[in-house]
Design a protein that fits this description.
Helix content: 10-25%
Structural class: alpha/beta
Radius of gyration: 22 Å
Number of helices: 5
CATH class of the largest domain: Alpha Beta
Number of strands: 18
CATH topology of the largest domain: Spore Coat Polysaccharide Biosynthesis Protein SpsA, Chain A
Length: 327
């Protein structure tokens, strides 16, 4: 993810979307608490061409979407007149100080958006090192009906990228598109701030006329009742609400998976799990329904006995060869 930053504010990838009067430049920003950065004096502009003289100021809208002890996350929209050409930057600068301008390359929206698609937006606090874990995760959600997977990462090795490219060519994932997106958010920001930022960013990347963009943490496997796919689960969870964004908190359970040599797929191993471990916390899923823009999510509830988020870990064996859950 391309971004611009100062010591007090970070602006992430910006997206150019046509509206009735021109262009909306959509982005997200993180502002450090108690900083000298002034939103009141901040001006937004579209820079066209290779020189700053081709600058067209717009009207800016800041909307707080999440906060923690150190940072405040905002959705930032800059409305500018329609411009010709594709060589554009989104620029933020303070009109009354020496605040260095923050310039971010603009992404164009999809030329031919899909009529309907489901996108999974994956947040990871750590680099992706282990292709087996990543492959299991991608395969699992592909079986739930995901069309696109956006992997927001803090680092990824060349070997993992090569393995993902090979994985994408397999028959089982022929209908799933995998996107790698760098995520350089502040290391001290909270999980909720990350969820809010990625939910907004990924909704703009989603590019479907209808369908959900869902944010989930890497390693959290959504366990649904048999036969229920992700799209049907989300529709049931939101009910008849007229809102566009939703959040659900689901019991998060750490359980062990059978690592027998006869079952190489985590999805198959999951059927042999004896979930005796105690539920100790909850996980989060957020989603936005296209073609709406993300907003403050409405909290919805699900049956905690029927729907869970699972974290898998290897089963530790006892001296007699049985797993601890079998003793």
């Amino acid at each position: 993810m391309q971004e611009a930053r100062s010591s007090e504010v970070q602006v992430y990838a910006a997206f150019k979307v046509a509206n009735e009067k021109g262009w909306s430049l959509n982005s997200v920003a993180v502002v450090k608490r108690n900083s000298s950065f002034s939103m009141k004096n901040t001006v937004c502009a579209l820079i066209s061409g290779d020189v700053n003289d081709d600058k067209f100021e717009g009207t800016i809208e800041w909307k707080q979407i999440e906060t923690d002890n150190d940072y405040v996350a905002y959705s930032v929209v800059c409305n500018v007149p329609e411009m010709i050409g594709n060589s554009h930057l989104f620029s933020l600068y303070d009109s009354k100080s020496s605040f260095q301008p923050l310039n971010v390359p603009l992404h164009l929206g999809p030329t031919h958006p899909k009529d309907h698609a489901t996108s999974l937006c994956v947040l990871s606090n750590d680099p992706y090192w282990h292709i087996d874990d990543l492959a299991d995760f991608i395969h699992y959600y592909s079986l739930l009906g995901v069309d696109n997977i956006y992997l927001y990462h803090r680092g990824i090795g060349d070997q993992v990228i090569s393995s993902l490219q090979a994985l994408a060519r397999t028959r089982t994932l022929s209908n799933v598109t995998i996107h790698l997106t760098t995520w350089n958010r502040p290391s001290s920001s909270s999980l909720l701030v990350d969820f809010a930022l990625i939910n907004h960013d990924c909704s703009w990347r989603h590019g479907a006329k209808q369908g959900s963009s869902i944010t989930v943490q890497f390693g959290h496997f959504l366990a649904l009742p048999k036969g229920l796919r992700l799209k049907e689960f989300l529709a049931k969870a939101r009910g008849h609400s007229s809102e566009s964004s939703f959040e659900v908190r689901i019991p998060l359970q750490t359980i062990c998976a059978n690592l027998s040599a006869t079952e190489t797929s985590l999805v198959r191993r999951a059927r042999m799990i004896n979930p005796k471990k105690k539920v100790i916390r909850t996980g989060i899923i957020r989603w936005t329904e296209a073609p709406n823009h993300p907003g403050n999510p409405e909290t919805v509830k699900v049956d905690p006995q029927a729907v869970k988020l699972l974290i898998f870990e290897p089963c530790r064996t006892t001296e007699n060869g049985k797993t601890e859950d079998e003793t």
